[in-house]
Amino acid sequence: MAKPKTKYVCRACGAEFGQMYGRCPDCGAWNTLEETVKAPATALPIATGSAQRSQTLAEIADDRLARQPSGYRELDRVLGGGLVAGSLVLLGGEPGIGKSTLLLAVAQQLAVSQRILYVCAEESATQVKLRSQRLGLASPPNLYLLPETDLTAVLSELQGLRPAIAVIDSIQALYLPTLSAAPGSVSQVRECTSALMRWAKKETVSLFVVGHVTKEGAIAGPKVLEHLVDTVLYFEGDRFAHHRLLRSVKNRFGATQEVGVFEMGERGLHEVENPSALFLGNRDEAVPGTTAIVACEGTRPLVVELQALVSPTSYGSPRRTTTGIETNRFLQILAVLEKRVGIPLSKMDAYVATAGGLNVAEPAVDLGVALAVAASFRDRVVDARTVAIGEVGLGGQVRAVSQLEARLKEAAKLGFRRAIVPAGTLPTVAGLELVPVARVLEAIVAALPHTGSVE
Questions:
Q1: Is residue 19 part of a domain?
Q2: Which residues of 28-63 are buried (b: 16+ CB within 10 A; e: fewer)?
Q3: Within this chain, do residues 304 and 423 fall inside the same structural domain, yes or no?
Q4: Sign of CA dihedral 115, 120, 123, 124
Q5: How many CA atoms does the CB half-sphere of 354 hold within 13 Å?
Q6: Which pLDDT score is estimated for 12?
Q7: With contact defined as beta carbons under 8 Å apart, do 166 and 207 qualify?
Q8: What pLDDT was estimated at residue 1?
Q9: Which residues of the chain have pLDDT under 70?
Q10: Hey, is 306 helix, strand or coil?
Q11: In angstroms, what CA-CA distances link 258 with 142, 208, 231, 249, 250?
């Protein structure tokens, strides 16, 4: 019988090597290789004369996915409409962001009418109960707590209790006794997740799995962890802010990049009914360098206030700082403003931030950033009832963006009266005046009508 071999597995990409490297030769990540013992492979039997088991698409029954509400509309939106029986949902986020708080509240809601098992692998049952009391949550009789880290004991409890929904908090704390690796290692996380997935699919039980994240913000463990599950959710937010964003980056039963907005209070997480109002800030006071834009997170449009500040630099090279905006894209917009519009920014410090700290990465915010920078440079105020939507090209063009009608309807609903948009075929939105522009210079003149030329 062949002896087990020692392998070094990259927890970032899952590649295996026969020796240790400081940097993974495949993905280039540093200090991600972990030692693991790999059992010898066994030869698979070759079946002869086996019956056909494959089916054509026409032969497969056309069954609709039955979705169950979670008790939180924001979570249901991110999941694509609710929980799907037999699905495996991975929830990742930084420590203290509220992952356990959210799933405990969901378990309390669902346990009113069905059995729920909450596996607290990192806490005792007393700690979970104390947190539940602190948050003012009820204690339904159908909510069962299991403080256990042994996967075989967890699977045995799942098989005996047969809950409708189960929560594993967290997958990095579980271990399989037959593996010699430590809990949280690549092999342990992979095998534990695979075993839970097989059981959930067989018993058609919805399973929530909590995952830790690395200092880079990715879910800890092998990349295969995200491939095994049906849905990957990230819980994001600034620890100094009250709001939290629940974002889907993978969903086999719905759209990706959907966002749910929550607010952290003394009694736990609360849903935000109007997220745009959260990211608009105070629009009553006229401040130079502020512009409203409409960003789309998945299928949800959000109106966000951008704030820019331009001032003479005191250093040899000007400073460029961004909060919520991609830095490289901001540098590109500054270069376009200097080259195509004539605003001298090479000796000016430039700062830009989004109200509420929301991260906006799509190109549709380019025009709003350009207008905010120009307004701050000229010390002018953009009308508080004007919103800017458009992508800025390197030649100074204003390009069309997706979901324009949905963005305009969201702006009109919040009381905006004027929208600066890319020229072309435009939708009709009641109560909203559309100002089509083809170049950034035209947009600046439309937004700052009393400045004259910006040359």
A1: yes
A2: ebeebbbebeeeeeeeeeeeeeeeeeeeeeeeeeee
A3: yes
A4: positive
A5: 26
A6: 72
A7: yes
A8: 46
A9: 1-4, 38-51, 62-64, 215-223, 239-240, 281-284, 450-455
A10: strand
A11: 31, 18, 12, 8, 10
CA distance 98 to 263: 10
Q: What is the pLDDT of residues 153-163, one digit of tens each?
A: 999 999 999 99
Q: How many other C-beta atoms are found inside a 10 Å radius of the C-beta of residue 178?
A: 9
Token pair for residue 239? 């620890």
Locate the DSSP E strands across 187-230.
Answer: 206-211
Distance of CA 313 to the CA centre of its chain: 36
Q: Choose among 118, 159, 169: nearest CA to 142.
A: 118
Return the structure tokens found at 25. Answer: 């030769």
Among 234, 255, 272, where does a domain finish? 272
Pairing of strands 116-120, 320-323: unpaired
Nearest to 131 by CA among 141, 118, 148: 118
- Three-state DSSP state, 398: strand
CB 424 within 8 A of CB 439: no
Query: Could you tell me if 113 and 175 lie in one domain?
Result: yes
Q: Which residues contact 176 (CB under 8 A, 6 or more apart)?
A: 151, 152, 188, 191, 192, 195
* 97 and 233 co-located in one domain: yes
Q: What is the dihedral of CA 296, 229, 192, 53, to 10 degrees?
A: 180
Identify whether 170 is preceded by a cis peptide bond (ω within 30 of 0): yes
pLDDT of residue 359: 84
The verdict on 118 and 10 lying in the same domain is: no
Cα–Cα distance for residue pair 89/67, rounded to 1 Å: 14
Taking the alpha carbons of 330, 333, 338, 341 in that order, is the dihedral positive or negative?
Answer: negative
From the CA atom positions of the chain, what is the Rg in Å? 26
Amino acid at the residue 442? E
**End of a domain among 217, 252, 272?**
272
**Long-range pairs of 130-139 with CB within 8 A, sequence gap ≥ 24:** 131/100, 131/101, 131/104, 132/104, 132/108, 135/101, 135/104, 135/105, 135/267, 135/268, 136/267, 136/268, 137/104, 137/105, 137/108, 137/268, 138/108
Residue position matching structure tokens 């305009």:
408
Residue 89: partners with Cβ closer than 8 Å, 6 or more residues away? 79, 83, 206, 207, 208, 209, 229, 230, 231, 233
The pair of structure tokens assigned to 362 is 């799509």
The alpha helices in 313-439, defined as continuous H runs, are: 327-336, 366-378, 404-413
Q: Which residues contact 41 (CB under 8 A, 6 or more apart)?
A: none
Residue 370 lies in a domain: yes
